[in-house]
Specification:
60% helix; 176 residues; 16% strand; alpha+beta; Alpha-Beta Plaits; 2 domains; elongated; 5 strands; 6 helices; 5-stranded antiparallel β-sheet
């Protein structure tokens, strides 16, 4: 690879990593070409990209970014799982695939929302429900107190209406 090609690759990788909500460093040793193809296809379905990188080029790409120093994890064969929109979807795709194929690819480390996470934390992140479910749970949690407030207010108004009606009936009965 010529110097200009390397500089271009580094620039492209920096852009991808800068726009990512999360990226994970993986060791893909032991995966066949067929398995790698399946892995990439699954990641693409989730809107996630997989890039096999030379360690020195990836380290140079990370130097210009505001991310934790994970340069020590660039040893051996390294692939980058880059999740642009949803960190959980990327973690879930990697973890599910690894579960099927004997813990391969193995997650070395991850960077989620500019914070370093270890392999165990990536597995925990993968266990979270999808973003839409979490948002629905939050909405439900916010809606419950409001529903109780509305129910309580309606009971107060209904009680007030019954009291006014009883008072009206009492006045009509006294007037007759």
């Amino acid at each position: 690879m010529k110097r200009s090609e390397k500089d271009e690759f580094i620039g492209e990788l920096q852009q991808k990593l800068e726009g990512a909500s999360a990226f994970y460093l993986t060791d893909f040793t032991g995966l066949s070409v067929k398995q790698m193809t399946q892995f990439r296809a699954r990641l693409r379905k989730q809107g996630v990209e997989y890039v096999v990188v030379k360690n020195t080029l990836a380290q140079r790409a990370l130097q210009g970014l505001d991310v934790p120093d994970v340069a020590a994890f660039f040893t051996g064969p390294t692939g980058l799982v880059i999740g642009r929109h949803d960190a959980v979807a990327a973690a879930k795709a990697v973890t599910d695939f690894a579960r099927e194929f004997g813990d391969r690819p193995a997650v070395k480390v991850g960077v989620v929302e500019r914070r370093e996470v270890n392999a165990d934390q990536v597995k925990k992140l993968a266990e979270l429900p999808p973003r839409e479910v979490l948002l629905a749970q939050i909405a439900g949690g916010l809606q419950a107190p409001m529903s109780r407030l509305v129910g309580g207010m309606s009971q107060i108004l209904a009680g007030f209406a019954r009291a006014v009606d009883a008072l009206r009936q009492q006045k009509e009965g006294a007037g007759a």
